[in-house]
Amino acid sequence: MSTPQAHLETLPRSVQVFLLLGLVALLAFPFAQQDFYTQTVTRMMILAIFAMSLDLLQGITGLVSLGHAAYFGLAGYVVAYVSPQDAGANWLIALPLAMLVSALAALVIGFFVVRTHGIYFIMVTMAFSQMMYYLFFDNKALGGSDGVYINVRPAGWGLDLENKWMLYYFTLVCMVITYAFLRRLLWSPFGRTLNGIRLNEHRTSALGYASFSYKLTAFTLAGALAGLAGFLWAAQTGYVNPELMGFHMSAHAIMMVILGGMGNVAGALIGAFGFEIFLDVFKDLPKIGNFDLGKHWQLWMGSLIVLVVIVAPQGLMGLLRSKKADDE
Amino acid sequence: MDLANFLIQLLNSVQYGLLLFLLAAGLTLIFGIMGVVNLAHGSFYMLGAYLAYALTGSMGNLFVAIPVGAVLSLVIGWLLEKILFKHFYHRDHLDQVLLTFGLIYIFEELRSMLWGDDVHNVAIPASLDWSIKLTDTLSYPAYRLFLLGVCLLLAVGLWLLISRTKIGMKIRAGAFNSDMAQALGVNIVRLHALVFALGVALASLAGMLIAPLSSIYPNMGSQVLIMCFVVVVIGGIGSVRGALTAALLVGLVDIFGKVLVPQFASMLVYVLMALVLLYKPEGLFKQ
What we know:
The structure holds 2 protein chains of 2 kinds. By secondary structure, chain A is mainly alpha-helical. Chain A has a single domain (13-285, 292-323), classed as ABC transporter involved in vitamin B12 uptake, BtuC (Orthogonal Bundle), CATH 1.10.3470. Chain A is 70% helix and 4% strand. In chain A, helix 10 runs parallel beside helix 13 (315-327). The longest helix of chain A is centred in the first third of the chain and has 27 residues, at 35-61. Mean pLDDT of chain A is 88; it is low at 1-5. Chain B is mainly α. Chain B has one domain. Chain B is globular. The termini of chain B are far apart. Classes of the chains: A mainly alpha, B mainly alpha.
């Protein structure tokens, strides 16, 4: 599944500068007083956390999970269940609990799925997430197909997520922490071992590393981080439904990671923003005469994706790499 | 559950299973021979349903529409292979996933431009619009029997094609070891185009046949695509025999699950898949 090429783990200076500028822009953004766009950017940051958590599996460990949304959605449901009818849940309890439940689910499911390889891994992860999806979809007690509303968003300790600004900056902090954590993890002995598993699992286990435990730990950790994104999603929308665990959400995450470029966390981050920005831009395209360009956004989005596969097989970040390789 | 009811559900299971087989056969061959993960396979099913709608509308008869639609689908499949897919056989699976995901968007939009976003229906042909009375309260629609018969014929035809003809021998050789087959003089380029077109036509046929029984709606391919992958993986990738067994198994589990334990029915198929893979990690009939 994974190619042994360098995944641009050492970020080029241009990318570092770009990310730094991006951070400054994100810090300043709410002051532009564009309420609608502040919420859009909050959503993008949440999806970026989700995409980065998947990159830990897909790009770093070489485990392509087509069921990652299960842990994302599950955390959202936890928030919904622990929120009282007329008050917000204490986020200091709800957030760790949501991440813990997601991590536990990932640990149990991971115990079964990390034994499989390649296309079978893709399919088994999908099967388990579909099971969760239908469990919540078909059972009225769990919310059923309509989902569950969160009347009051989590709050506590001076933080009130009902406040759009606070939610924005809280999400930004979570995103930066996730990014820093995963970048640090990538270069830790643990991360190097995961990388070794992606490049050649047999060789890595021959060197004495218990690849099963490493893969299971990565799967659990990725589940917990997806849970963080799920918590934020539930806090933002105030509503959870089974679609959050669905096939499309999982595929969406994979697309974001591939679009940006796998295996270096920064690619997933850029891919998530890129994917969402393109979607929004395409949907807002103007009418030309009788032809409404925005109404046909799927055509532009589809063409863009096909184009990326043809000209940039390693994602948007890969474009940088091949240019750099040409220079040398 | 009394006997009549049981028989009805059994017929429904087999019919659903065979329909899934038509879809999964193409998918498993395309994966087994060309190594392509085709997420857009569900779009061909949708294409079939909409072709049935459009052609029945313009020709007035479903029985004329189906052969015409099948030929059209063959041509579309052949063209897609020549223009796009053949350049992706040696690419990473993830690139193929991304490509075919992009294609789903494009196909959906083309569908929307051609036929709009409304839900459509195709009438059951008058000659088959009657039912067989089983008991005082239960009856079985003739069109479902027709569908069952056609699917059976197609399945048997496909089996004969693959196990009894020279082309079938080449297809099996290609699925077993594509490079070796080429070295032994099989025109693998033509074989690829043929298999791809065949897969598209089978998926489209499934869509055309089911059109009178289900409504025709946007995104109808995505649900069925997941089921197809389940069937292909349970059966073992590249195995047509496995796809048939798995499709019938999935049909039985799904239909009887819906009757017996409606709350957990939709989960059951995935439980089945997880169990099979834990027990046999490469599917039932891995070659």
